[in-house]
Amino acid sequence: MLDLQNQQQILLSKLAYYRKVINQRSEEYRQLKSKIAIPRIQRALTKISDGTYGICEACDERIPDTRLRAVPAALLCIDCQVKFETE
Question: Helical H runs in the chain?
Fold first, then answer.
């Protein structure tokens, strides 16, 4: 049977490992998010320049201002975004 000090050391080692894994995955998530976000922002800026900002790329309907305030680089209206995410 392990004494209390050994049990604590094992738990601390496991916690350090889990913390390392979580931090690594968080960094991978941030990198992936950047890879996705930057092109979307660039596309939204292009749409501003050519006068099509705020128009859904799937259904050509106007994207509500509330959505654009929440997600300025939104390229799809909420309905089309939901369809896209479920397919």
Answer: 4-50, 65-70, 78-86
